[in-house]
Fold this protein.
Amino acid sequence: MGEQKCGFAAIIGRPNVGKSTLMNHLIGQKIAITSNRPQTTRNRIQTVYTCDEGQVIFVDTPGFLRKASNKLGEYMQDVSVGTLADADVVLYLIEPSSYIGEGDREIAEALRKAKTPVLLVINKIDLIKKEQLLGIIDSWKEVFPFAEIVPVSGLKEKNLEDLLSTIFKYLPEGPLLYDEETLTDQPMRQIASEVIREKALQLLDKEVPHGIAVTIEKYHIRDDGLTEIEASIICEKDSHKGIVIGKGGAMLKRIGTAARKELEEMVEGKVFLKLFVKVRKDWRDNEMLLRDYGYEKKKK
């Protein structure tokens, strides 16, 4: 066996193309939260895949937004664009369609400036017939000089081995950056906050999709092994607070139960989870609150 390889693979694409799902299936464990709503991922999340060939550090980014409508959106765009410069290879994830919109062309322009090898990853191929794939590949070849084109299904785990071996071709030789057991650089507090936010996104009405954040007020592992977590769900409006709590507290209880079950699987033990709901008007446009909630621009 030759020298081991190790490097960074950035996963980019428009909202909702399945970036987090693909990353979770590539490393074989759920780290990034998923939902069928855009803007689910707000920060760059690093996960680590280690095998005999070496190590891939996947960086999942917020979906590219054509126009940021608030400071949170601007932050997310900065994270996505900044990730391109740090990567050894970029995985540009698309849905299986030969229609190429303005947003995709804008991403292609950003990729040209980055000068990093780009793999076009056509996701969700389980949704189309084989003969449709060639037409999709031909359409996209005209948009950008991709290093390679790899069709996959993240959800059905189709062609993931091919994708991994293709990624390794573009990584530099070098020692592993993380211990072989490491799956993510995210602390458990951050993962807990993301799990709670995911359950809220999945269970809540469409009128409260993205005006929520989750902060962890307390994360404590007791001597008897019980993990105590206290968290606040932050809303932008009083009316949203009522929806999050639900009639007689029913919705908040559903969110808490779903989050607790998943967290117990992750920590492999009992979790006591207490949720609060707070209103912070227009927090997505308040730089101080964005910093408090973990959305802080990194110093250049």
